[in-house]
Write a structure and sequence with these properties.
Rossmann fold, D-inositol 3-phosphate glycosyltransferase, 36% helix, Glycosyltransferase_grp1, 2 domains, glycosyltransferase, alpha/beta, six-stranded parallel sheet, Glyco_trans_1
Length: 420
């Protein structure tokens, strides 16, 4: 379990039946909107959901530009208070900004004393979470920590030589153990990710709580398909292994006339565009860059199949969004993706990095008769239904109040054959 000397000893849960007053929640994040990634999206949607339920939500995050300070921001249609910290750009990365580490305790103390939150919920241990957890613990404020981070995801942006990277990973996990050890409860999006965090930090009792999505925001299409369109959504970076997807598309039969749409931006964009040229598929590949939420939903609806070749997903919000759009999914059999994709039910898993296996699975889906394709599409809708964001928000509300929680059940019941 997290550190038993944590703040929960001084913040007892409310008596059963007591009126549940709105809470003041301070969410700390090293990445937050306008950043586009799974951790930032989760924090944004959680914050908006809490505001919609009447809670007073404050965000502590690096400033997205040189402008820093405290002001009101609107996210997902809800207004919250943002405390944007003076930040520096990390130039090896294409957009990342970070709060100044040696100022974080001072800034955390100042904001906590101004806001007087009932609970502090940090989204990573790196800078903001470390400062907030130290100062919240001093004041006996309940702390919840959520991990979306794998040290390996950042190594390509550190400029460290490979021979020293393993040592750096070890240091990162030790730092995570110290920060998450201050929390009363620690969460991460899936059971696989929770087991992973426990293994590398020594923590126990990590909760598996899905990031969740609002499936009603997405539009399934069960009509006849007029083209074969593969979709990828996510950061265009090395660990996503988009090069494997490009090579698989190049290996597909020309008769399928397959199109590939890649939504997202990142440091590998130019390299992948050059690879598409080399593979002679540039005329069939569209790199859209970042898009609006409405454009993203349209991309899901018009796709035939969703491909996720990444080997470093702690959950994959993009995959869940695709499933809510009734897309069959072909995903790497790595990290938490098998939690969402089940062979023959809503798609297929392929051997990570294996171009031929990915191409074979994509070709199989793209050539399925409509009746069999619809089985996979309905399977995606059924499995993702267990990841409703309202359940996620309710679970965090209970954690914020110090109430015991059972991890939400996100394993959908297997499909049952009908007599039709």
């Amino acid at each position: 379990m997290p550190d038993s000397s944590g703040p929960h000893s001084s913040t007892p849960a409310q008596p059963a039946g007591a009126a549940k007053k709105p809470l003041t929640v301070l969410i700390g994040a090293d990445t937050f909107a306008p950043d586009v990634n799974g951790a930032a999206r989760f924090a944004e949607r959680l914050a908006a959901g809490l505001v919609s339920r009447g809670h007073d939500v404050h965000i502590v995050a690096p400033a997205a530009s040189r402008k820093h300070g405290t002001w009101q921001e609107e996210h997902e249609g809800q207004t919250m208070t943002a405390h944007r910290l003076y930040s520096w750009r990390w130039y090896p990365h294409d957009w990342l900004r970070f709060a100044i580490p040696w100022r974080i305790k001072q800034n955390s103390a100042r904001i906590i004393d101004e806001v007087k939150p009932d609970v502090v919920h940090f989204q990573s241990h790196i800078v903001v979470g470390r400062g907030l957890s130290v100062e919240a613990k001093k004041r006996g404020i309940r702390i919840i920590g959520t991990n979306h981070f794998m040290p390996e995801n950042m190594l390509e942006f550190t400029l460290l030589p490979r021979w020293i990277q393993e040592w750096a990973i070890g240091l990162a996990w030790k730092a995570a153990r110290r920060t998450f050890g201050r929390a009363e409860a620690v969460t991460t999006p899936t059971r696989k990710a929770a087991d992973f965090l426990e293994k590398f930090t020594g923590l126990r009792g990590v909760h598996a709580i899905s990031c969740g999505i609002d499936a009603h925001n997405y539009t399934p299409d069960f009509g006849e398909r007029t083209e074969n369109r593969i979709l990828f959504v996510g950061r265009v970076t090395g660990e996503k292994q988009i090069d494997v997807l490009l090579k698989a598309v190049a290996a597909l039969p020309a008769s399928l006339d397959t199109k590939l749409e890649i939504v997202g931006g990142g440091d590998q964009l130019k390299n992948l565009q050059n690879l598409a040229e080399t593979l002679n598929i540039a005329d069939r590949v569209t790199f859209t860059g970042y898009v609006t939420d409405e454009q993203l939903r349209q991309a899901y609806t018009r796709a035939s199949v969703f491909a996720m070749p990444s080997i470093a997903e702690l959950q994959s919000i993009a995959t869940m969004e695709a499933m809510a759009s009734a897309l069959p999914v072909v995903a790497a059999n790595a990290m938490a993706l098998p939690h969402l994709v089940r062979d023959g039910e809503n798609g297929y898993l392929f051997d990570p990095g294996n171009v031929d296996d990915l191409a074979t699975k994509l070709e199989h889906v793209l050539t399925l008769p409509k009746e069999e394709l619809d089985v996979l599409k309905r399977g995606s809708l059924r499995i993702v239904a267990a990841h409703d964001i309202q359940t996620t928000i309710s679970t965090f509300e209970s954690l914020y109040r110090g109430e015991p929680v059972a991890d939400p059940v996100t394993e959908a019941a297997p499909s049952v054959p009908t007599s039709e």
